[in-house]
Design goal:
elongated, 70 residues, 20% helix, single chain
């Protein structure tokens, strides 16, 4: 039986929050505009999910799958 294959890309926006010290907030604000200078500790924080929203589902292709790929 012939098969159709669909390739879809899904994009989701996710907002996370984490509490930091006054010193950390100040340090981050000083380098905010240059992501290359963000402190390593930013990535080590235990972020909490605040909000998540799907934004876009885009079908990139639909094709008939050749029998030799089944």
């Amino acid at each position: 039986m012939p098969i159709l294959e669909q390739h879809e890309e899904q994009i989701t926006s996710v907002w996370r929050r984490v509490e930091v010290t006054e010193e950390q907030a100040k340090e981050f604000e000083e380098v905010y505009d240059n992501e290359d200078e963000w402190p390593d500790w930013v990535w080590d924080l235990d972020w909490d999910l605040e909000n998540e929203r799907p934004e876009d589902d885009k079908v990139l292709s639909i094709r008939v799958v050749p029998e030799d790929e089944v």
